[in-house]
Design brief:
Keywords: Kinase, Transferase. The protein is mainly alpha-helical and 55 residues long. The chain is built from three helices and two strands.
Length: 55
């Protein structure tokens, strides 16, 4: 992540499955993450609903 940030890049981690992984990425400076820990795959029309629930 340090190299990516030094090059002006954004780091996205994929496949996050639990809170420990998410926390470790937060501690190490990961910019964004995605995976089943955050949300299971679903239909596109549920995106707005999911965002409302989490805000």
């Amino acid at each position: 992540m340090q190299l990516a940030h030094a090059l002006g890049l954004t780091v996205t981690a994929e496949g996050i499955e639990n809170a420990a992984q998410a926390e470790r990425l937060r501690q190490t400076g990961c910019d964004t993450a995605q995976g089943w820990y955050f949300a299971r795959p679903g239909p596109p029309d549920r995106i707005a609903e999911i965002l409302r629930e989490r805000s």
